[in-house]
Amino acid sequence: MADSAICCTNLSRSPNANSVDEPCRSFHRTFHPFGFGSMSHPSLLDRRDFIKCSVGGSLAMGIGSVVPAALCQAADSVPPAGERILVVVQLTGGNDGLNTVIPYADEAYQRSRPKLRIGSADALRLDDSLALHPSLTGIAELIDDAMASIIQGVGYEHPNRSHFESMDIWHTCRRKTESRTEGWLGRYLETAAGRSGGDVPAMHLGRGQQPFALASRNIPVPTVQRLEEFQLRGDPTGSLSQLLRETSSIDDSADSLLGFVQSNTESALAASDRVRKAARGYRSDIAYPESELAEKLRIVAQLIDSGLTTRVYYVQLDGFDTHAQQRDTHAILLRQWSDAVNAFIRDLQQHDHHDRVCVMTFSEFGRRVAENASEGTDHGAAGPMFLCGGGLKPGLIGGHPSLTDLQDGDLKHHTDFRRVYAAVLRNWLETDPAPIVGEEFEPAEVFA
Fold first, then answer.
1. pLDDT single digits (tens) 177-203
2. Which of 76, 208, 227, 408 is the most buried (most CB within 10 A)?
C-alpha cells in the first residue's frame, strides 16, 4: 500500500511472518474508508471476511505516512476524569546548565568564564547567589507564580560524555552493559496499559526519530508532525459507520471478536472526531511565540482540551551542542524553550488543565565549567532539570554544585536523574517507580 496503516489491534503473524490470509488481503484492497486504497460499498465486503481479517491482522486506518503506530488501544476501562498528564521536553545536545541557572556571585564562575559569563546586572535573580539567564523571563514568571521548580545538580554516577550513550542512559535508566530494549516511559506505558481509555497512551510530536524513552514491547506510540495528521482521513460518518451499524445487527452473542472490532473501531472514530473538533474549534487568548517548539506545545494543549486521554506527550528542542560562539545561540534557544513553556502553561490555565499537567525538561548532560578557546563550552556532566505546572514545590530544589570541587572539570551531581523520574512516576503518574527506574532510587521531594 502506498500509505501507511494505523492498526487498532496487534498484528497476529502466521508461521510465515510476512503472510496474511486471502480474506484479509481482500479487505485491505477494498475497504479503506479513511483515504487510501480503492473504495467499495460495505455490502460488497463479506462480514465474516471482515472479522477474519481482524483476527489475522487488524482494522486498518490511514492517518498519513508519518504516523507509524496505533490510533487506538484496546482498553478494559475508561480512566477517571482529570487524569494527570506528563509532557516531556528534551533539550538535545547538552544544555549549558551553568549559564542557565547562574551562580553569579561565585568568583570561580567569573574566573572560569571571562567571555561567556552572565553579569549580575543582566541575570534574573532568584536569590543572593543564583539567577536565571536573561532569556528565561517566561520561566521566571512561572517561578514567581509557584508553578516551576528547578532541581539542581542532576546527573548520574560515572557520567558518559557521548551524546548517544548519555541520552540512552537517560532514556532507559540503564548502562550499555545492561539489557536496553525498552525506554523508561515505555516501561511505564506497559504498567499503565488500559488507563488511556481507548486513546493512544503516549505521543511524540516532531520530525525526528522517536525517542528511545518511549520504546516498549507491546505499546505502539505514534509520531505526529501536525495536528491534521492525527485525524482519520475521509468521512468517518460514511461507509465505516454504516458497516458498524450492519454488523451490530448480527445476532451472534458468542462472537466476542466482532464486539472487540466494533468497540475499537468506534474508539478510533471518536478520537478522530475529538481531534478534528479540537483543530476547528479551539480558542485561546494566549499568543504562542513563532517557533517549532511552541507549535508542538500548542498542539499538545489542543489535544488535551479535546478530551484525549493520552497520558504522555514528548517533544524536543535541538541545538544545544554549543562548542563555539555559544552566547547568542544559547540565548536564542533558552528563549524559545522558556517562552514556549510559559505560553503552554498559560494556555492550560485558561482552559483549567494546568493542575493536571506536569512539564518536565531535561538534557543529556551539562557543559564544562571552563569555557573553551572558541567561546563555547564542551561536554560536561551535571546540570539542572525543570518541572513546570501544578502540584510542585516551587523554586530551587537542592544546592548548586561546587565550582571548585570538580570531577574532571565538570560539576558533580548530587541528585540522580532517576530520583526525579521516580518522583514523577509515583507522585504524579501514581505508579510504582521501582520496576521502571530501579528499587534503589527513592523519589526526590519535588511535589508538594
1. 999 999 999 999 999 876 656 678 999
2. 227
Cell 545492561: give the residue. Answer: 178
DSSP category for residue 35: S
pLDDT on residue 271: 62
Closest CA to 191 of 218, 213, 223, 220: 218
Dihedral sign, Cα of residue 305, residue 306, residue 312, residue 313: negative
Distance CA 15, CA 56 (A): 12
* Identity of the residue numbered 16: N
Return all residues near 147 (Cβ < 8 A) that are at least 6 apart.
345, 354, 388, 389, 390, 392, 394
Q: Cα 362 vs. chain centroid, distance in angstroms?
A: 12
- DSSP code at position 61: E
* pTM of the complete model: 0.79
Alpha-carbon distance of 304 to 293, in angstroms, equals 17
Residue 64 pLDDT grade (very low, low, confident, very high; cuts 50, 70, 90): very low
**CATH architecture, range 85-229+286-437:** 3-Layer(aba) Sandwich (3.40)
